[in-house]
Design goal:
Layout (H helix, E strand, L loop, with lengths): L8 H6 L2 H16 L9 H4 L3 H9 L18 H13 L5 H17 L2 H12 L5 E4 L15 E4 L3 E9 L9 E7 L11 E7 L5 E6 L8 E12 L3 E2 L5 H13 L3 H4 L2 H14 L3 H29 L5 H25 L11 H16 L6 H11 L4
Helix pairs in contact: 2-5, 6-7, 6-8, 10-12, 10-13, 11-12, 12-13, 12-14
Bound molecules: flavin-adenine dinucleotide (FAD).
Length: 385
């Protein structure tokens, strides 16, 4: 399907109903046979390599990677359909999420032929998981301030520095690291480069950081003068800033930026259908559903723009800002509108899901770029000074 950007969104979607039906049947079977227990924020916390392998077996990983690199040569819109269903059903997609979402397109765009052949088939077959090495203790929103340094030894690089909030680094097979190769932190956007670093590595220490629920999904990663081969450089030396901006476009633009808590809404709706809803609960459900639908249309437009080969940065920033706010509002609305008491243990799966969602709400508007930063991008994109 060719997307020009002028079509009606319904027309764009109608071509993929068969795929959607297939994914739904797969997920129903998986959840009915104990393949997974639906949960919120499953794209960050639901790490299940077995599930990832089964998804890969259906051809739903590396969908947009060309077949010559082990992928399936399909469109971002088809990938959107699969992602949306996985997220709405709370499937455990965390193991492959980062690799499939942003590392595959980044390696495709910037990688050497050797890197493409080395990493892309593993991503498409659900065997190669990645971590994102951007943030540092003094460089989160202000990524240009990274201090991690890579020194050129001719046939290798020596990397020294500390990354933080590195999701899944303890389980990943590789990490893409943003480091300064030239100049000083004051040089800002120039002198930065990216590296694909295989993990584990004897001189890279990965220390768990525990979140409020006691789980350790992210890490502090310390590079103690870690040597990596010259071939680990991703793209051009000094072009790291532009490459990272391209990678962030993929990181920020997907439906996970408004669907993290959708499994809670679905579970609550099923609960109300079974037990009966008050007029107030109906109103809350209707309001949340209307907001989700509007967000879905915006998110679908982002996928359509990507399919057309355009860069919908401003729209993606807008969807992430409004969407991640919605994710938290949804949790609070369900909590306030029901007699449910959030409990981390016990037999009530809805109460457990609510507890998990409440504890995760603070991260929604931070990860992948805070809402304040996104609003800056939107304002600049709209020409507001
Ligand atoms: C769950 C989770 C997972 C993450 N996973 C990863 C990962 O895998 N890899 C990775 O590299 N990073 C990861 N991060 C880090 C994330 O990208 C950063 O937390 C985020 O970019 C903010 O950076 P910071 O924490 O340094 O906050 P800061 O930049 O210190 O910001 C603090 C506050 O100041 C505000 N602020 C900062 N600058 C401005 C400005 N110019 N204008 C207005 N307000 C501003 C921010 O909005 C924020 O509210 C993760 C974060 C979370 C919460």
């Amino acid at each position: 399907m060719t997307v020009t950007g002028t079509e009606h969104l319904d027309g764009i979607e109608s071509g993929f109903e068969h795929l959607r039906t297939e994914v739904r049947a797969f997920l129903s079977h998986e959840s009915a046979t104990g393949g997974f227990v639906p949960d919120t924020d499953s794209w960050m916390t639901g790490f299940d390599p077995g599930f990832s392998a089964r998804v890969a077996g259906r051809g739903w990983l590396g969908m947009t990677i060309p077949t010559e690199y082990g992928g399936h040569g399909r469109s971002p819109l088809e990938r959107f359909v699969v992602s949306e269903e996985m997220l709405a059903h709370g499937a455990p997609v965390a193991a492959h999420w980062i690799a499939d979402r942003q590392m595959a397109p980044s390696i495709l765009a910037n990688g050497s032929e050797e890197q493409k052949r080395r990493y892309l088939p593993g991503i498409a077959s659900g065997r190669s998981f990645f971590a994102i090495g951007m943030s540092e203790p003094d460089a989160g929103s202000d990524l240009a301030a990274v201090r991690t340094r890579a020194v050129d030894n001719g046939d290798s690089w020596t990397i020294t520095g500390t990354k933080v909030w590195t999701t899944g680094a303890h389980l990943a097979h590789a990490m893409v690291v943003l480091a300064r190769t030239d100049g000083q932190p004051g040089d800002r956007h120039s002198g930065l480069s990216q590296f694909v670093v295989d993990l584990p590595h004897p001189d890279i220490e990965i220390r768990p950081l525990r979140s409020i629920d006691g789980q350790a999904h992210f890490n502090e990663v310390v590079f103690h003068g870690a040597q990596v081969p010259a071939a680990a450089l991703l793209g051009k030396r000094g072009n790291g800033w532009a490459q990272v901006m391209g990678e962030l476009a993929f990181e920020r633009s997907g439906p996970e930026r408004y669907l993290s808590t959708m499994p809670l809404l679905r579970a609550w709706a099923a609960h109300l259908a079974a037990t009966g809803a008050t007029p107030g609960q109906r109103q809350t459900l209707g309001t949340l559903t209307a907001r989700a639908w509007a967000l879905r249309r915006m998110s679908l437009r982002v996928a359509a723009e990507l399919t057309a080969g355009r860069k919908p940065d401003v729209l993606a920033a807008m969807v992430k800002d409004v969407g991640s706010t919605f994710e938290g509002d949804l949790v609070e609305a369900v909590r306030a509108s029901s007699a449910l008491v959030a409990r981390r243990g016990g037999a009530d799966s809805l109460a457990r899901m609510l507890a998990h969602s409440v504890l995760h709400t603070p991260v929604f508007t931070l990860r992948g770029g805070t809402n304040e930063i996104l609003r800056g991008i939107v304002a600049r994109g709209l020409g507001v000074r």
